[in-house]
Design brief:
The chain has 100 residues and is an alpha+beta fold. It has a domain of 64 residues. It is 35% helix and 12% strand. The chain contains three helices and four strands. The chain is elongated and about 65 Å long. The structure holds zinc ion. The site of zinc ion (ZN) has 7 residues, from loops.
């Protein structure tokens, strides 16, 4: 693995994060809000995730997740750039059959 578990976080958490975190967990009923294939995860939530902008700590941008889902999401965010490099671009260079 070329990236660690903390590499995705480039914006520091705010001073009152502990309070915000508790408020979000309470709002979501302390249950993970991850939805996969139309089914909501029912595992107790322990983490609070930023849906969009990691610097936006408003309630609309935060949701409760269980640890496995939060890890999965964080690693997806950090690995996006590395993954893009792996995709070969050969297909774009193929000439259109109509142009031959
Ligand atoms: Zn979950």
């Amino acid at each position: 693995m070329p990236y660690g578990p903390t590499s995705a976080r480039t914006v520091p958490l705010p001073k009152g994060w502990g309070v915000i975190r508790k408020r979000i967990l309470k709002r979501d009923g302390f249950v993970c809000t991850w939805i996969d294939g139309g089914m909501r995860c029912s595992v107790p939530a322990t983490d609070v995730d930023h849906i969009g902008d990691p610097a936006d700590h408003s309630e609309a941008n935060l949701r409760s997740l269980c640890q496995p889902h939060h890890r999965r999401r964080s690693s997806a965010q950090g690995g996006r750039a590395a993954q893009a490099k792996k995709i070969p671009r050969k297909r774009r260079q193929e000439a259109h059959p109509g142009l031959l």
